[in-house]
Write a structure and sequence with these properties.
By secondary structure, the protein is mainly α. The protein has a domain of 107 residues. Helix content is 46%, strand content 3%. The chain has 14 helices and four strands. Strands 1-2 form a two-stranded antiparallel sheet. Strands 3-4 form a two-stranded antiparallel ribbon. Helix 2 packs parallel to helix 14 and helix 10 packs parallel to helix 12. The longest helix is centred in the C-terminal third of the chain and has 16 residues. It is globular and about 50 Å long.
């Protein structure tokens, strides 16, 4: 199937958010064009956005109950299972909203107010800090002093292998290797910060991935670093996938680096004959319903096409 017909699929009006983001991020239409303005104008009326706003507490947060522990959290920084504050703010960003909407600003500002003095949110979880940096950039907080503190913390945090971890695992085993999930979320954050691509800390993290051909073990280079890293998934959460790593490295100009080749081949296996990409997994507790597992998926296809587009646009190395 020609590529343009896959794009037509993403542009269908049944998913206003993907239509809007496809126009902006894949077709590079001007935000001032009539088509883009019309697409953006209907986002708040979509069922997905309405559902998130209905579930939001009047004070600007989302409560969630962990299905394993039965503990309810949400009014603080803790999170449970894909339905709390950092996730819901991410879902709103994915759906194309930003701080210009008063409810988004209310929830975002409240969450940022819980930030620690060094820019951390919760036990220096690298997955959470990287996730938050990416999400708040998408929501329009790039220049906010509070986000700047978290970015500064990201740059100041150093580990021998070039990656990231968190206080919980550091305390249990001080010499433990970095967490691939935390590293990938930090990589996604750096991917949206081109002014930091040549920073020594960013280079160290990029090298962390290139040394292991993105998704493989250093000592067993034919084994995935995690069995689930090869699966395609949406929405983007604290877990990671090969697609997210390729998306980040390609955006940073490294999509053609030899170390990415095997990962591209693994992603290609998820592509159907008509050019769409299958979604292997989505969390059932997510408030952003992405579709059925094992089926061609618009969200996964959107990110895969973006990654390919970045790869084809440049071969510049950091």
């Amino acid at each position: 199937m020609p590529t343009h017909t896959v794009t037509d699929w993403l542009l269908e009006e049944s998913n206003p958010s993907l239509r809007y983001r496809t126009l902006i991020e894949l077709l590079h239409e001007s935000p001032r064009s009539r088509m883009v303005r019309e697409a953006k104008g209907v986002l708040v009326d979509s069922p997905a956005v309405k559902d998130l706003f209905v579930r939001m507490h009047s004070d600007g947060y989302w409560l969630e109950t962990n299905p394993r522990t039965g503990i309810t959290v949400g009014d603080g920084v803790e999170y449970g299972s894909y339905a709390g504050n950092p996730f819901c703010l991410s879902y709103l960003a994915e759906l194309g909203l930003d701080r210009s909407h008063p409810l988004v600003a209310k929830a975002a500002d409240r969450y940022l107010s819980l930030q620690k003095s060094d820019g951390d949110f919760w036990d220096h979880f690298s997955c959470l800090n990287g996730y938050n940096i990416r999400n708040f950039i998408l929501l329009g907080y790039r220049e906010d002093p509070r986000l700047q503190k978290t970015i500064s913390l990201m740059l100041a945090t150093r580990r021998p292998d070039g990656g990231y971890l968190c206080d919980m695992h550091e305390k249990r085993r001080p010499n433990r290797r970095s967490c691939i999930r935390g590293c990938s979320k930090m990589l996604m954050a750096y991917a949206l910060l081109p002014d930091l691509w040549k920073h020594e800390r960013c280079r160290e993290l990029v090298d962390y991935f290139l040394r292991r051909n993105c998704i493989f073990k250093l000592r067993k280079p034919h084994e995935f670093v995690r069995a689930d890293i090869i699966r395609t998934q949406f929405p983007i959460i604290w877990q990671t996938s090969a697609l997210e790593i390729l998306w980040s490295l390609s955006r940073m100009g490294l999509g053609r680096h030899p170390a990415t080749q095997a990962t591209w081949e693994a992603l290609e296996a998820k592509r159907t004959d008509d050019g769409r990409y299958v979604m292997d997994w989505t969390p059932t507790q997510s408030l952003l319903k992405a579709g059925k597992r094992g089926q061609p998926n618009k969200w996964v296809t959107f990110y895969a096409l973006q990654a390919v587009q970045y790869r084809n646009a440049t071969s510049t190395e950091l």
